[in-house]
From TrEMBL:
Taxonomy of the source species: Bacteria, Bacillati, Cyanobacteriota, Cyanophyceae, Nostocales
Keyword Nucleotide-binding tagged: yes
InterPro entries listed in its UniProt record: P-loop_NTPase, Rab, Small_GTP-bd, Small_GTPase
Pfam families: Ras (PF00071)
Keyword list, A-Z: GTP-binding, Nucleotide-binding
Protein name, UniProt field: GTP-binding protein
Top-level taxon of origin: Bacteria
Organism: Mastigocoleus testarum BC008
Example GO molecular function: GTPase activity
Amino acid sequence: MLQKKICMVGAFATGKTSLVSRFVYSIFSEKYLTTVGVKIDKKLLNIQGRDLNLIIWDLYGEDDFQKLRLSYLRGSSGYLVVVDGTRNQTLEKALDLQQRVEATIGKKPFILVLNKSDLQDEWEIDRDEVSSLTQKGWTAIETSAKNGLGVEDIFQTLAQKMLEE
């Protein structure tokens, strides 16, 4: 069986842990829990008839006080850069993180995850900025850990990209 490590990166409180919980355990909690260090989960996927064991590293959110430990990224086959659609500054942080991750582990498949799509009325993310990123070759997918929209899609799409490498 093929095994691949992926990392969840992004600013604090973007919904990384909630996305993993929705994907791995099919649950969502309104309670906010800060990730301390790293939380590791596994999920078995079948991609085009091939079994793939995803090892998901949910890394603590980066903010002004806590910088991402780049050593956690070693061995990753891909990663998800998670943004909170209701906080524009999380997109700025995501752009910076993506460059730092790439500088650390090289060019690997990744997806820009625009989370909290269930809160469209509070959306701050500039769709033109996202559009310019997709024109540069980025894959961007809207998700909601709360209602499950797009959650399976981000992991399936990333797994597919990793297998194509």
